[in-house]
Amino acid sequence: MALVSADSRIAELLAELQRLLGHTQEERSRSEHNLINIQKTHERMQTENKISPYYRTKLRGLYTTAKADAEAECNHSDALCSILRKALDKIAEIKSLLEERRIAAKIAGIYSDAEPPRKTMRRGVLMTLLQQSAMTLPLWIGKPGDKRHTLSRRRVIPLPQWKANPETDPEALFQREQLVLALYPQTTCFYRALIHAPPQRPQDDYSVLFEDTSYADGYSPPLNVAQRYVVACKETKKK
Hints:
By secondary structure, the chain is an alpha+beta fold. The chain has a domain at 143-239: SH3 type barrels (Roll). 47% of the residues lie in helices and 10% in strands. It has helices at residues 2-28, 32-48, 53-75, 77-108, 123-135; strands spanning 179-183, 190-197, 206-210, 223-225, 230-232. A 5-stranded antiparallel sheet has the order 4-3-2-1-5, with no helix packed on it. A hairpin with an 8-residue loop joins strand 2 and strand 3 (206-210). The N and C termini lie far apart (58 Å).
């Protein structure tokens, strides 16, 4: 029954996600038709090599409409952000349900032909899956003035639930020379490190310097670590 219930909920979420994406496309294409008309009008003017009264009147009307569309788009920006947040929430819930379904099927001894029982994974395969998981971390879309919420970490250090966009929320990222715990490449262990350079784009990784006494300055050369696997470290930086 649990598997049937999960399948039903996933179907509902996919339908809701499709509806939300439809609204997103409507918001994005609101002024696209008018902009295409402006471009085509300019192309006709260049072909005919003249600016007739007809084209002046037509362009004046098209640009007036484009200005109104741009103002409307500004007014709809909050609504668009809200739609995107809801879509990301649906995607996260679908991923969680799929994982719960897989675990429930494994416990019950149920496997489909498309998903045979999992074998022990080689180290390289596991590292690849970890990196792929980091790449799928959803991007946080916040409103102006939004701040990052910090959970209590006395007993547990949670991994990030969102990927910060350096172009819109740089304050949500760790900064240069800040002490962190980072996942050492090709391992499943977190070690103390200093931020060498924060990401410059949403898809970029952190560049970090891991503490390593085998080097003269006590730190390794810069290594890349995904946002998902870089967390705060309470301890103070070594002097």
